[in-house]
Amino acid sequence: MSTDALLDALHERLGGRGLLRDPADMARYSVDWAGERLGQPLAVARPASTAEVSATVMLCREHGVAMTPQGGHSGLVAGALPAEDGAELVISLERMDRVREIDPINFSMVVDAGCILDNVKQAATEHDCDFPLSLGAQGSCQIGGNIATNAGGLNVLRYGMMRELVLGLEVVLPDGRIWHGLKALHKDNRGYPLQQLLLGSEGTLGIVTAAVLKLSPRQTQSRTALLGLPSVEAVIALYGLARRDCSDLLSAFELIPRRCIELAMEATPTLGDPLDDAYPWYVLMEVAASGPLDLGAMLEHLLEQGMERELVLDGALAASDAQAQQLWQFRESMLEGQRRRGEHLRTDIAMPISAIPTFVERASTAIMAASPDCEIIAYGHVGDGNLHFNILPPAAMADADKHAHLHELEALLFEVVDEVGGSISAEHGIGRTKQDAYLARLSPLERELAGGIKSLFDPAHALNPGRILPRP
Ligand code: FAD
């Protein structure tokens, strides 16, 4: 059957707003966040309900057409980007953006998968609750995408990743059937945890259409500090101290190298140098709580301890919310500063927290030996053992050579990750860009089990084919 017949049937089922076929209308669904990779959708379906998602999937199945679920399109491993051959139908969840229900007593809320994370957070706040997932892309990423990638972010050390923040799911399976798993239970030990298979499956096992999210009591106060430190060893020692000294109220502990402070100031010229002197490493940390606790005194005590032990050389403690926001602005602007440097290697690796100093030392030595003119930018969520060890190619290198060069450096870097018992993907997933490195590290048994799971859910490999596992 021709794809025209499918598109006509989809148009009839979804209506004019529900199906985009014009290349100009499809442009924004066809390019990744960094603007570095292009895909070519057959068309873009924009269902407005779970029933419409199911109907879309059933029609695709009938016509033998592959599908790519797409959320906010902020993923960094090309998972939501349709293949270049124009054979995949993009299914965008963007019209399914309703907060269905909030239960502040049960600390839960039910949302459509297309809800933008920022809007979910705002809705929770209005009911005196927090939805604690926070990340740089929260103004555009969607809950469905967060679930599909098992997203983490700034507050994982306190609240966990999406796996710990989802109570129930509604999913359209690759054959179009709807799995109704929207339970709002904080405890449920019935049989296999099916929803955990969907979390982090990157749209390869089903299309998430709604979720029950776990909320936390709203934090009514927080204190933020930016500290200057002499070494990564000092950062890790301070982290141990902070976890113990702050009654486990630490909600963020970000490692930032000096170069990132400079990139942030370049990207946002209104930002001045945050401390009187420049330091090789910085920590941006936050403690948050509700109730009558003196968080300021807690942080001051920690800083005194840190200075006495010569872990902290200087620090700025935000005295107001506005000042705290300004300190966080460094974290946000440094990403924009990197983006402006064009194509570079972005990684999201993980390792035991205690291995971070050894890793940074070994990886920096290996990369600089292989490419002395490149620039290393290592920052991350230290409390989760998660580093973005990014590499900017030599400024003088021709654009055409950068991709292959960065790929070689990535392979070197991943060898050091293996040496310290780490993971090549802590947050972004495998998608298409990390597939070779992922497969190279799978044991035959793991590969057999992973292949069995995919075949059980999607024997035809119709949903996100070629992501995580290769096409058969
Ligand atoms: P998309 O990019 O649209 O899709 C990602 C994957 O999920 C694709 O494989 C897609 O097919 C699948 N998918 C999307 N929606 C659905 C659905 N409804 N059902 C099934 N599959 C679906 N990630 C972190 O974990 N932590 C961070 O701190 C972080 N910071 C970031 C900062 C910036 C500036 C940027 C650009 C990205 C960052 N990311 C981070 C990565 C990204 O934001 C997350 O992976 C996010 O969860 C992706 O959500 P999305 O809606 O944009 O998904």
UniProtKB/TrEMBL annotation:
The keyword Flavoprotein belongs to this UniProt entry's keyword annotation: yes
Top-level division of the source organism's lineage: Bacteria
InterPro entries attached to this UniProt entry: FAD-bd_oxidored_4_C, FAD-bd_PCMH, FAD-bd_PCMH-like_sf, FAD-bd_PCMH_sub1, FAD-bd_PCMH_sub2, FAD-linked_Oxase-like_C, FAD-oxidored/transferase_4, Oxid_FAD_bind_N
Stretches assigned to the FAD-binding PCMH-type domain: 37-218
Keyword tags: FAD, Flavoprotein
Family note: Belongs to the FAD-binding oxidoreductase/transferase type 4 family.
PANTHER family per UniProt: BLL6224 PROTEIN (PTHR43716:SF2), D-2-HYDROXYGLUTARATE DEHYDROGENASE, MITOCHONDRIAL (PTHR43716)
Protein's name according to its UniProt entry: FAD-binding oxidoreductase
